[in-house]
Amino acid sequence: MQATVRTFDPATRAGTVLVDDGVELSYDADALTGTGLRHLRLGQRVQIEVDGSGPTTRVRSLRIYTLRE
Prior knowledge:
- The chain has 69 residues and is mostly beta strands.
- The chain is built from no helices and 5 strands.
- The chain has strands spanning 2-9, 14-19, 24-27, 45-51, 58-64.
- The two termini are 16 Å apart.
- Its EC number is 2.7.7.68.
- Keywords: Nucleotidyltransferase, Transferase.
- It comes from Actinopolymorpha pittospori.
């Protein structure tokens, strides 16, 4: 699923993304674990994987959209 970085706190490495359908989801530093990412820019496009649905949805992993494995 694609999203846009809405907020990012460099101290905690947590923030929020805005999914393309307008839903705002939060993420914590665990979502960046193993990605090598140290910083995200506001407005940056990202690829996310989520757990749960509805109000319990949380971002499990996040990576920059243009980076391919």
